[in-house]
């Protein structure tokens, strides 16, 4: 039996350590051949042998690890043929309920309908047809469409992400509302040695003010920590909970024993922790918008022709075989075949190529593409999950589930750091109970220059004192801030320079990128066809050539003709009025301009008119070898010249590619264009490797091949068809002149269209990652020095908190030094 792949939505994960715990448990499960858990997406991607395991068993594995699984649910109903009695309906119902991915199925013999609640990530409508067929019956038709349910599920998921961000923000500010008064209240004693006149009120105030940050806004931290410990693992929440809990307990204890009140410190720790959590949720929320952008591209309604009458229906109600009327400027509702009319269609959302394509009767069209200038009737052939757009949505989701080679660096280190600190804290408590006299001697020695050290206190009190100090000083605030602060500063610098960093992993991965792969149209080229060459005959001029050609083409709807008209307007050349316009299909156009019969088109058009083009043959071949579309123009039987149209290179493409090579990077280009066009562009720009004639749904596979060949790669592109490829690449970089979906699916988005921003992205990523490594080093160096001091009882928890804050400030200060880095392209 073939292996199956499933996706599980994991809940209650708070850090990368949690993701690692779930992944480890799944990989150990019977029948599992591969399991990957993406902490940012909060999803597990599992490949398993259905003969040895099942979805339900894998869900149980996740739950036994201390985490939850959110089940995607959808409902559908269908008409069943061939049933004659209750036994028939019972047989179908039993078969449905036994199938993996179905939560509940009911079959009604009276209505001859089946109603199913199921997981859309496991089953499709074709699966229902097979189940019913294998039961001996026939599924005749569906009563509803899955598209609506899939859209609903995706929107629910996105809504959940937004709720998480809002909730994290609420908790953060709620905690600081109580922590700031605590800090102000503690300043007199901390910095000036002035104690409050009534310490009873002070101590009680610290306890009261610390309760909301810990047990209201920070409640989930304690719950998550408990779950982790109860399943034999430790994460950042465990350390936070122990540190804040230990510090808070000293508040009530101060009324019974001579020990300092550190309840206020516990609130400070929680405030820093929840601030980091808010930053994390915000970043994750931005990464989850790609699917929403994809869904928004689709049409919401369709105009159906029934019995000769037009009727507007919701897109969910469109069925295969329906005839849809599509007017100029409207989106084509779903994939189909033109049964009447002809037009040009803007397929840039599907192909990434800006040049509209001609479509006529019998041609296939893609749902969500734009009908430009003709009235057409389209027969729906694919609906729901079978459409091109739905497949792209699926491809993006799958690509996002692939792990990048380098994981979150800080989380990896923290995975080792947390258990180590816990062991040290417990050991500290034990050491003070076992060797109190020896440790007291250290205290007596330091008492003269550390006034807070009081070795005369009881052994148990001193043990608690030291243990709290270890937990507080080792609380990984600096570690937690090391990466996000550098990312925040780096992203701020990037925004100032037109580079938007959307995913932190990109910065870490960019330093190891071997090759940068470019899509051609709209990335290396401008993405808009324009006039590139004007070659006038001896008795003509470039201005006259373009004026007459543009005047004739003004009556045409062809994209190349539009480019010629646009070229004339850009050069402020007047377009004349025409008479007797005629379009010769596949050859060109002709019309009367100022009394002259003007022809614009191919060799065949000129040959049929008896016009000699031999003097221009050399230029025609040259232009064609440069991958340009050359159109001949003639007036009253005499050649006027050649107008060449092409998608021109961006002004800085050649310079940008050259500088990227200076930075030690290889370059490649991937495009749907023909091999000759692609190679011509690559030669002109200086690109090393070319992959041409790639279909939209084949780009992901080509990116995988390039990864196998070159290793870690970055992909630069635009267009909706680039979205899966951008997410498959180790780093996806979207040009801002592309579509929104490409931007949402990228790791880095370039606001400006010029390629100098790619160089900025490379330089900025390298510089930012360098700062991240420096920050992590200093954060660890600080802990290595501070923890031994805390173990010996020489570090007051308040001072420990100040030291921790100082370490955080040093991390932020170092990150801000990024602003002195030159991240601009050398040629700018």
TrEMBL record:
Localization annotation: Cell membrane
Keywords linked to the UniProt accession: ATP-binding, Cell membrane, Coiled coil, Copper, Copper transport, Ion transport, Magnesium, Membrane, Metal-binding, Nucleotide-binding, Repeat, Translocase, Transmembrane, Transmembrane helix, Transport
Keyword check for Coiled coil: yes
HMA domain boundaries: 4-70, 74-140
PROSITE patterns reported in the protein's UniProt record: ATPASE_E1_E2, HMA_1, HMA_2
Enzyme class: translocase
Gene Ontology terms describing biological process: copper ion homeostasis
SUPFAM superfamilies on file: Calcium ATPase, transduction domain A, Calcium ATPase, transmembrane domain M, HAD-like, HMA, heavy metal-associated domain
Entry-linked PANTHER family: ATP7, ISOFORM B, P-TYPE CU(+) TRANSPORTER
Full protein name: Copper-exporting P-type ATPase
Organism: Halanaerobium saccharolyticum
């Amino acid at each position: 039996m073939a292996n199956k792949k499933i996706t599980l939505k994991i809940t209650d994960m708070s850090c990368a350590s949690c993701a690692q715990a779930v992944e480890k448990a799944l990989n150990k499960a019977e029948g599992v051949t591969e399991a990957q858990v993406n902490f940012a997406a909060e999803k597990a991607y599992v490949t398993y042998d259905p003969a040895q395991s099942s979805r339900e068993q894998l869900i149980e594995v996740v739950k036994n690890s201390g985490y939850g699984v959110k089940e995607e649910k959808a409902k559908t109903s269908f008409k069943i043929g061939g049933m004659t009695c209750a036994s028939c309906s019972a047989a179908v119902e039993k078969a449905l309920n036994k199938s993996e991915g179905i939560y509940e199925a009911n079959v009604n013999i009276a209505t001859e309908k089946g109603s199913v609640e199921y997981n859309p990530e496991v089953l499709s409508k074709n699966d229902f047809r097979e189940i019913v067929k294998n039961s001996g019956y026939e599924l005749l038709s569906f009563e509803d469409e899955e598209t609506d349910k899939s859209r609903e599920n995706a929107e629910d998921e996105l809504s959940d992400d937004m709720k998480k961000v809002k909730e994290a923000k609420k908790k953060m500010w709620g905690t600081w509302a109580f922590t700031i008064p605590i800090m102000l209240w503690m300043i007199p004693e901390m910095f000036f040695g002035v104690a409050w006149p009534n310490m009873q009120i002070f101590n009680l105030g610290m306890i009261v003010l610390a309760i909301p940050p810990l047990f209201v806004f920070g409640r989930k931290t304690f719950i998550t920590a408990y779950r982790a410990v109860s399943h034999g693992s430790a994460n950042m929440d465990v350390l936070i909970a122990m540190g804040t809990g230990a510090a808070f307990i000293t508040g009530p204890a101060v009324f019974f024993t001579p020990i300092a009140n550190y309840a206020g410190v516990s609130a400070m720790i929680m405030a820093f922790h929840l601030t980091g959590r808010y930053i994390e949720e915000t970043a994750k929320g931005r990464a989850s918008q790609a699917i929403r952008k994809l869904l928004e591209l689709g049409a919401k309604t369709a105009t159906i022709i029934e019995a000769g009458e037009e009727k507007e229906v919701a897109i969910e109600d469109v069925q295969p075989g329906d005839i849809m009327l599509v007017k100029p400027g409207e989106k084509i509702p779903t994939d189909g075949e033109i049964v009447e009319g002809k037009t040009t269609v803007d397929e840039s959302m599907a192909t990434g190529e800006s040049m509209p394509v001609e479509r006529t009767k019998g041609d296939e069209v893609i749902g969500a593409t734009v009908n430009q200038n003709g009235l057409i009737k389209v027969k729906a052939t694919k609906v729901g999950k079978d459409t091109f757009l739905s497949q792209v949505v699926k491809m993006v989701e799958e690509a996002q589930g692939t792990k990048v080679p380098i994981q979150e660096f800080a989380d990896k280190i923290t995975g080792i750091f947390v258990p180590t600190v816990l062991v040290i804290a417990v050991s500290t408590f034990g050491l003070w109970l076992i060797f109190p006299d020896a440790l007291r001697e250290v205290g007596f020695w330091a008492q003269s220059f550390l006034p807070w050290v009081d070795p005369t206190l009881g052994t148990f009190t001193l043990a608690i004192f030291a243990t709290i100090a270890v937990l507080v000083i080792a609380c990984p605030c600096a570690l937690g801030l090391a990466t996000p602060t550098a990312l925040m500063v780096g992203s701020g610098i990037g925004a100032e320079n037109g580079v938007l960093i959307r995913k932190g992993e990109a910065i870490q991965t960019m330093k190891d990128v071997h090759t940068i792969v470019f899509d051609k149209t709209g990335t290396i080229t401008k993405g808009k066809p324009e006039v590139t060459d004007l070659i006038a005959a001896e008795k003509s001029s470039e201005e006259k050539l373009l004026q007459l050609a543009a005047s004739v083409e003004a009556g045409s709807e062809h994209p190349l003709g539009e480019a010629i008209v646009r070229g004339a307007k850009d050069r402020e050349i007047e377009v004349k009025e025409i008479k007797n316009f005629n379009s010769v299909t596949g050859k060109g156009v002709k019309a009367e301009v100022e009394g002259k019969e003007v022809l614009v088109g191919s060799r065949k058009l000129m040959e049929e008119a008896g016009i000699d083009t031999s003097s221009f043959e050399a230029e025609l071949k040259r232009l064609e070898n440069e991958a340009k579309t050359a159109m001949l123009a003639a007036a009253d039987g005499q050649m006027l010249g050649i107008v060449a149209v092409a998608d021109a290179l961006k002004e800085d493409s050649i310079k940008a590619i050259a500088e990227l090579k200076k930075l030690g990077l290889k370059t490649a280009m991937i495009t749907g264009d023909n091999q000759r066009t692609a190679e011509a562009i690559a030669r002109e720009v200086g690109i090393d490797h070319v992959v041409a004639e790639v279909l939209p749904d084949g780009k992901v596979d080509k990116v995988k091949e390039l990864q196998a060949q070159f290793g870690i790669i970055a992909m630069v592109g635009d267009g909706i068809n680039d979205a899966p490829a951008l997410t498959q690449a180790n780093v996806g970089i979207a040009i801002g002149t592309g579509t929104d979906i490409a931007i949402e699916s990228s790791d880095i988005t370039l606001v400006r269209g010029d390629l100098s921003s790619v160089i900025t992205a490379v330089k900025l990523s390298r510089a930012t990652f360098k700062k991240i490594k420096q920050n992590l080093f200093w954060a660890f160096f600080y802990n290595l020095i501070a923890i031994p001091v805390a173990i010996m009882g020489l570090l007051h928890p308040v001072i420990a908190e100040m030291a921790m804050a100082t370490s955080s400030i040093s991390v932020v200060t170092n990150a801000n030094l990024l602003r002195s880095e030159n991240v601009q392209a050398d040629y700018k």
